[in-house]
Amino acid sequence: MKFVDAHIHLADKAYFQNVEEIIDEARGSGVVALVANSTDLETSKRSIKLAKDHPDHVYATGGIHPWNTKQLKPNEVKETVDLILESKQKLLSVGEIGLDATYSGTGEPTEIQMQVFQEMLSTAEKTSLPVIIHSR
Question: What's the rounded Cα separation, in Å, for the pair 100 and 122?
Answer without folding.
Answer: 19
